[in-house]
Structure formats: structure tokens, C-alpha cells
Amino acid sequence: MAKEFKINPNIQEAETLPAEFYRSAEIFDAIKEKVFLKTWQWVGDENLVPFTETV
Q1: d(Cα 8, Cα 21) in Å, to the nearest integer?
Q2: What is the pTM of this model?
């Protein structure tokens, strides 16, 4: 991701990220690679797991 976004740690001074962050295909691809490809993300309905400890 070429662009760097700064987030103020003081929530009272922090602002919303610019629209580019939400609309850019390049940024979206970078986030997918840096966040979601490192770990498994389980997505599904609870009906897919009928018994406890079956996943």
C-alpha cells in the first residue's frame, strides 16, 4: 500500500479516514493481503456447526 493514513490515538481528535481508503481497489487489495491472508477467517452460519466442539 503506497499511501499511508494516520489515525490520531486521541479519539477526541481523530477523524474519519478519507473516502479514498474505502473506494480504492489498490488499498482494498493491500488490506486483504496484509490482514486476511495471514489468518483463517471463519465465516458461516451457526447451523453449519450443529454440535459443540465440532469445528
Answers
A1: 16
A2: 0.53
Tens-place pLDDT, residues 19-52: 999 999 999 999 888 888 887 777 788 888 777 7
Range of the domain at 20: 11-48
Q: Answer yes or no: is 3 within a domain.
A: no
Which contacts of 24-33 are long-range, i.e. CB under 8 A and separated by 24 or more positions?
26/1, 26/2, 27/1, 27/3, 30/1, 31/1
What is the spatial distance between Cα 40 and Cα 29, in angstroms, rounded to a whole number?
A: 17
Return the residue matching grid coordinates 452460519.
45
Euclidean distance between CA atoms 24 and 26, whole angstroms: 5
